[in-house]
Amino acid sequence: MNRPHPSSLILHPLSFKLSVLLPVYNEERELEHCLQMVFASQSPFEIIAVDDCSTDATPQILARQTDPRLRVIRHEKNRGKGAGIQTALEQARGEVVIIQDADTEYDPRDWEAMLKLYGDEMARNADARVVVYGVRDLSTQPLLGNLGNQFLTQATNVLCGTNLRDMETCYKLVPTALMRELNLQSRGFEIEPEITAKLAKRGVTFLQTPVSYKPRKDKKLRRVRDGTKSLLALLRYH
């Protein structure tokens, strides 16, 4: 018998409109399943998918979806994951945002626990500047990816004065107004350290909670090249 995901049993005291920022590029293999997982969650107020000029069946998959919460925007030129996030952020109408990769590495059922953690903190102090990071278990990653993630997280803690356990996590729950205040510039995967470094400079409180993670084998990320770009972004923005 299937047991419910633990987060589905959690009720949070405050309700926040959640905008899901979904950058997509050539994800025909996993996109349909990803969308089903996203639509199964009651957490999103809206889902903003940005098709970054995909050349496979991604546009057709997005076009046949009927969930009224989904909005689709297409880039006429490929601009990168960071650019997709920025385009979606411009259109977000919710009070808080979270980024969702267009595959099945992450489980949207974890949003509920993140929203509860955020809501509990805001109930204690409505003026607090709070963000919530989902922490992955990286033990199932390939060794190079695991070591690279650990290095970048520790480099972030040293440079930015944080105490993070997973800086590169996709699941970052951030108030929409605060995310826009960051004036994001990165076009590629280095968007993650840019977000974190700029949040740290603003003195936010980083809350952290475990999230599910199933690493994919055919990642678009190139570990050495993109890891170097991420380190340079940390040095630039911290």
Fill in the keyword field for this structure.
single chain; 238 residues; alpha/beta; Spore Coat Polysaccharide Biosynthesis Protein SpsA, Chain A; 7 strands; 38% helix; disordered N terminus
Note down, in words, how this protein is organized.
The chain is built from eight helices and seven strands, in the order βαβαβαβαβαβααβα. By secondary structure, the protein is α/β, with parallel strands linked by helices. The protein has one domain (15-237): Spore Coat Polysaccharide Biosynthesis Protein SpsA, Chain A, CATH 3.90.550. It has a seven-stranded mixed sheet with strand order 3-2-1-4-6-5-7, sandwiched between helices. Residues 1-13 have low confidence and may be disordered.
Q: How do the strands and helices of this protein lay out in sequence?
A:
Blueprint: E1 18-24, H1 31-40, E2 44-51, H2 58-63, E3 70-74, H3 81-91, E4 96-99, H4 111-124, E5 130-135, H5 143-160, E6 172-175, H6 176-181, H7 191-201, E7 205-210, H8 223-237
| Multimeric status of the protein | single chain
* Class of secondary structure makeup: alpha/beta
Strand fraction band? Answer: 15-25%
CATH superfamily: Spore Coat Polysaccharide Biosynthesis Protein SpsA, Chain A
Whole-Å distance between the termini? 48 Å
**Main beta sheet:** 7 strands, mixed
The mean pLDDT is 90
- Please compute the radius of gyration using only Cα atoms: 17 Å
Biggest sheet strand order reads 3-2-1-4-6-5-7
CATH class: Alpha Beta
Q: If classified by CATH, what would the architecture be? A: Alpha-Beta Complex
Using the alpha-carbon principal axes, give the shape: globular
CATH topology: the name is Spore Coat Polysaccharide Biosynthesis Protein SpsA, Chain A
Uncertain segments are 1-13
Number of helices: 8
Number of strands: 7
* Total count of domains: 1
Assign a percent range to the helix content.
Answer: 25-40%
Q: SSE order in H/E notation? A: EHEHEHEHEHEHHEH
